Amino acid sequence: MTAQTQGTGVYFDGVSGAPQSVTVTLEHSALAIASPAGALARWDYPAIDALPAPADRLRLGLAGNRSTARIELRDPAFAAAIKQHVGFDSPQRRAGERRRRRLVVAWSAAGVAAMMAIGVTGMPLVAELLAPLIPYAMEIRLGEDTHRAVLAAFDEPGPWECGDEGPMERAGKAAFLKLIRRVEAEAHLPIPIRPFLVRTSEDNAFAGPGGFVYVNNAFILNSGSAEELAGVIGHELGHVVFRHSLKRYLHNLGMAYLVTMIVGDVVTGGGTLFATGTVLNTRYSRANETEADLFGVGLIARLGADIHATARMWDRRAAAEKQELGGFRATSVDSTHPDSAARAAAIRALPNVANPQPILTAEEWQALRQACSRK
Amino acid sequence: VATRGADVTEYSATVPAAGRGHFHGTKAEYRRILWRDMFALVVTLGLYRFWVTNNIRRHLWSRTELAGQQLDYNGDPKELLIGFLVLLVALAPIIIVTAMLGWIAGFVWGGELAIGGLPLGDITPYTVLGLLIPLAVLTLYQARRYRLHHTVFRGLCFRQTGSVWGFVLRSVLWSAVVLATLGFAYPWARADIERYKMRQTWYGDIHGRFEGSGGELFKRGFLIWLVSLILLAPAVPLYVTTARLDAANDPGAIAFLTLLILDVGGVSLVVYPFLRARVVRWRIAGMRFGALSFTSDFSTWKFAKPYFKFYAWLLLIAVVVSLLGVILYLIQAVLLPMLGMAWEVVGVISALVMYFSTATIITFAFQGTVRFETWRLIVDSLVLHGVDQLDRAKSSAGTLSRRDRAGAAINLGGF
Question: Less Cβ around it within 10 Å: N or C end of chain B?
């Protein structure tokens, strides 16, 4: 049985919307399309594309969108003959399509991986390079904005700042300022710091952009000595001198843009950032914490005080964290700070000063612990 | 000489084209495409979405037959990708400039300068949002242009002409009016926007227009609007009470907040499909291409059903993801001491995969339910009047100019 070489179909020439009944002939190198009035078109086989269509018909067009002319055939025997002749549905063509699809997926995945690599290694660098170009006056304004946001988060009754509710508070604040000024004097900061003693049960101390430094009352009560507290204050001053808050702001802005770029989550970037941004940003943050740790310890050493006091504090915190988590270490994907035990070990590895001097007198330290007593 | 089986129906141009729509696709076929592309989408963190869009459109278009002739989609995913990159480049200065502006404003006037009690620095994020919304409208309209330009019917393309800015301005202004009137103005806003859209739409050389009226839509949707307004009324006192209570510490506040979310969310989710069914029927009835017009009489309930299927999927996905989250947390607790810092890499990868899998599954659940079933319902119910008009259509000169192609490709890459 010879293959069918001629059949009928409907042809749209791409110029008029009117359908034309045509005779289609399989010639040696091309498909000839003719109406009763005469030849209409000849489509070379390599230029012909099979278009997606329901199973009961064969729909042909010209590859590469050069024309919108279409031909549709509904005679299954003739359709099969054309398919065989042109090579549609052949295993080679199908394999070619699969290969193209895999190539697209592979290239896209590689592109995404490359962007992530740029983000992880490149963004911290960009932040380091850009930060020196931002004037300090601008960073201070950013700090004031941040300060307002920080205040909004405090929910203890009474004034949020300690040191003015009675004589004991006033004495405590004086001790606090003495401690801070002693450490600050060694730090040679480019801008003066603005220290705040915060009335809250949240166990934390932190620095914002523009020299804003916050020490929470709960953190003071959980510190074993003035030296421990001084180590942490030194650490926060490290953040100020290295402009870590500003760098993190720039870094996170860049990361947000990069993630948006990949995911296309332009309008609702929040969810994406939560999943990817947090994880990638914290990596950068941990590097900053280590840098600030070393700076803080250096200040304490220059004051001639016991630097290993800070290590003792981290040890105690590591033990507490371990207890909280039922025996597991605390660092997780989303923590912005390094592992407490690792921080303690890093500090203990440094040689201590020969004859450590106390940073505050015992009376001053006791007064400092009463700075938020409301007395 | 060709031999033909006697049972093969003669298919020729002279067979009178029935003026009906018919959808040839099956759910199984469609599902196969979705499953195949889902993996690729997750692996590429969504970058493959331009190809998914292309595959889905090619399929749906090709299974859609109108008055005896099917549609073709001949878009190119690479063009969509490039359009997206163009948008990102255009977006970068906007984001940077607005971020800097807020900062500089704070720097020059100090943090004390405030508009309506809000310090300037706090307003900045909203300015960015204010710029992003028109931009989103713009890209949606450009995406429509691309879709029309790459839709081939009877060998001719559709087209969208004219400026996109007029559309953006109209949409933004009308949205403000609709919000201010609690939705009362919606039918007239929609009619105006549809008239504008169809005025810019062509099939070959046949100019489109829209003849539906706001009054007609108002009649069709008034009852739904009124009922939802009554059902949403308790949200106001609920919101006021919640705002007054200390949300963090007061269990009452949480109860009120839950009620508020249930009210607003529940009413919106239930009402939306019914309202949308009415709007779609009204839009179809108002659409004209020369003498060609359309009617559709699909049942509202059949239109709403896929939405409820989608909601059921959402519920199921939420339960499964929460369970997986708990399991992953437990695994982390066990693996952490063993892996140490290497855990970070594992953690990053699993968080990313989790996020994108969830987002992808939700999107595909929508595609498999609402997108497919409402499409099929609309196409199957479509009646075309004045089909002979199509025979006289001619391609218009410069149908696919280079400028239009480039402009039209700007998109966010949604499907």
Answer: N
Helix (H) or strand (E) holding A35: strand A30-35
| Proportion of chain A above pLDDT 70, given as a percent | 85
Tens digit of each residue's pLDDT (9 = 90 or more) over B179-220: 999 999 999 999 999 999 999 999 999 999 999 999 999 999
Q: How far is CA B397 from the centre of its chain?
A: 31
Asked if residue B342 has pLDDT above 70, the reply is no
Q: Do residues A197 and A318 make contact, with C-beta atoms less than 8 angstroms apart?
A: no
Q: Are the beta carbons of B154 and A332 separated by less than 8 Å? A: no
**pLDDT band (50, 70, 90) for residue A268:** very low
Give the 3-state secondary structure of residue A266: coil
Partner residue facing A109 (CB), from B43, B135, B337: B43
Selection from B353, B322, B324, B350 nearest residue B336 by Cα: B350
Closest residue by Cα to residue B193 from B159, B224, B169: B169
Measured CA to CA, the distance from residue B229 to residue A51 in angstroms comes to 48
Say if residue A266's pLDDT is above 70.
no
Instruction: State how far the Cα of B385 lies from the Cα of A122, in Å rounded to an integer.
Output: 61
| Average pLDDT, integer, range A194-211 | 85
Interface contact A260-B88, CB threshold 8 A: yes
- Give contacts of A257 with chain B, Cβ < 8 Å: 92, 95
Is A98 exposed, middle or buried (CB count within 10 Å of its CB: 0-12, 13-18, 19+)? exposed
Alpha helices (H) in B63-119, listed in sequence order? 77-109
Average pLDDT over residues B58-75: 92
Whether A83 contacts A58, CB under 8 Å: yes
Exposure of B224 in the CB half-sphere (CA atoms within 13 A)? 22
| Cβ(B91)–Cβ(A267) below 8 Å | no
Say whether A52 and B119 touch across the interface (CB within 8 A).
no
- Whether residue B107 and residue A51 make contact (CB cut-off 8 A), yes or no, is no
Angle at A98 between CA A96 and CA A104, to 5 degrees: 105
ipTM metric: 0.80
A70/A50 Cα distance (integer angstroms): 10
In the predicted structure, residue B369 carries a pLDDT above the cut 90? yes
B192: left (phi over 0), alpha (psi -120 to 50) or beta: alpha
**What is this structure's pTM?**
0.74
Residue written as token pair 């169809």: B198
